[in-house]
Amino acid sequence: PRRAPARRILLEHNSYSETDAVALAEEAFRIWTEARHDAIPSNYAADVVRTLEYVRSALRSNAEGRPVVVGAVTDGNSDPRAVPALAPHFDFVVNAEGVGVSKPDRRVYVAAMREMWDRVEELGDLAEGRWGKGPFEEERAEEIVGPWWCHVGDDFVKDCVAAKELKMRSIWCRELILPPVEERTVPSAATGPPAKKRDVADLVKDLSNFKGAIQMTIGAEDFLADSIQREFADEIVDEFREVGTTLRRWHEEAATATVTASGGDPNNDNGAELRNEDAGRAEPSPEEMAAAIAEVLEVVVPDAPPPIGRAEVGGTAAEAAALSATTKFCVYCGTKLPMAARFCSSCGEKQPYLE
Predict the structure, then answer these.
(1) DSSP character for 125?
(2) Which of 31, 175, 239, 250 is exposed most, by the fewest CB atoms within 10 A?
(3) From its phi and psi, is residue 79 left (phi > 0), alpha (psi between -120 and 50) or beta?
(4) Do the beta carbons of residue 216 and residue 285 sit within 8 Å?
(5) Whole-angstrom distance, CA of residue 330 vs CA of residue 343
(6) Residue 275's CB: how many other CB atoms inside 10 A?
(7) Which pTM value belongs to this model?
(8) Could you read off the pLDDT of 295-336 as tens digits, one per residue?
(9) What is the tens place of the pLDDT at every residue in 331-352?
């Protein structure tokens, strides 16, 4: 499609023959494509290659040797496999030009699912257990994806919101869209005039036209924007290297949840480490979040998780109390989880933060 305008200009305004116009358009496009990919290393996020290496090695070791598939879903026609340093780290690429539409159109992500469907044999029992066999069925897209598919991107709407529509986990990586640290200042009486008072309607308008990070004054609006962002982005990181550690943490949480659900020891080292990490997070409670974004999003949070009783643990009241300090229940399906779990190991839903 990109070659057609060049060919038309050569034909209509430069008196080229059809054969010469096609040949020159193809050559020009080849040179432009090579230059575009040659420039990619100059615009890397910090530690991108090392992080990609870490993702594959760390996750594979945590997944008992199961393969880790990494794909690129991009707008335009770029292909990271055309960049020598990136090529070994990507198993497939889906780009907007090949699909015919751009993100956040659902068809771009469905095309990526089709790529995965062709790799069922590589994924072994993981794929057969979730997908079964037979032709790809688009109406089963959300079931196929599940919580094990994580989409990482820097555009809130095109990446995080679109991914969440398909029930993918998502990481909003803002390294390439945030201004330099020294430029991230908050307007004040000393640095400029006070910002115009804004309301929820202004915020919703900003989100609908979101191209990166919203600039706001500190206060309730910041809390509201953060709540909405975290409703769609399961994790928000400001450096690409944090993507690797986030994915590994999720794998460790899933392993801990599996041990707990099967009657193992919920107080293992990994679980304790994750509980300590989450304990220091200054995240809003489910009640605060629900109240803050009620005018924008409809969020339903059950009043309380299923109760833990003596009959549940088969012991004394003291034993039940001790267990309740290290475990909780999924607020959606009721599965028992370790207190550190951010996602349910059974239904995959993200769990509200508990004090």
Answers:
(1) H
(2) 31
(3) beta
(4) no
(5) 8
(6) 18
(7) 0.62
(8) 444 444 445 544 444 444 445 555 555 556 677 888 777 787
(9) 777 787 777 777 776 777 777 7
